[in-house]
Amino acid sequence: EDPTFSRFLRDLGLGGMFAMVSVDQNRRKVRRSGVVARIEVVDVDSEGGPLDPTAVAFSVVGRKRCRVVGPSEGMVARVGRWRRCYHPDGEGAALGWGDERFVDAPTGTDDAEQEEGQSQGGLEKIPSNVWTNISVDCVLDRDDSVALDHDVLERAQALLPLLDKWVELASDQDTYDNIDVVASTRRIKGKPGLCVDPDRLLRGVLADLGERPPPSRPTDLAFWGAALINPLPALGVAPEIRGRVLEAENACRRLEILEWG
Description:
Layout: H1 3-12, E1 17-24, E2 29-45, E3 55-68, E4 76-83, E5 94-101, E6 136-138, H2 150-171, H3 198-209, H4 218-229, H5 242-247, H6 251-260
């Protein structure tokens, strides 16, 4: 029910696309890597009138990987982010557009130069509830289209029973009777029981994800696994790895991150 987000989705409309990235909490900067998301469902509640939507029911689907365009070091760009400073009463996080610092690109990355007007140089006077454009490059996953290293295939194959076991344990309510099992969705911290039904949640996630990619497609397998253990709605039993998997430079590293998660 964020009015700025509601207007943003209304403006883009059904079939509209936008880039979604995450924040590296350790470095306190925005990640460059993300996904291009397409609006599959949008139902705007316009009680305040067509120009002032109050809430929106929506569904977005990630279509392809992308990377925000900009200088390799010291990049600043105007992007949307949920922050307390954008809330009119300062009582919670609200969406707003403003200058954000981005993580530096890996050494050796040939990144495009930032476009004029994309950084903090000429957009200061635009209100924070008005969105602006930013350039992204779509990333092609070549790892799965070339001859794969034997070690990569072995690592991917070894992950399959681990993923099966994770689903078995994470779906079972009895798992959470052990208060040593970390879960952010517990009804009461340090007590048995969750405020969500893990079996129902994960059955829905698996249905949305579709068939699990085979080890011969390790990049797709890593993305599939990351979406599984970091589901939406959140289950809170695994560390957040989706941003790290998107940033990883190759299939082997993506599989390592998934195994760690």
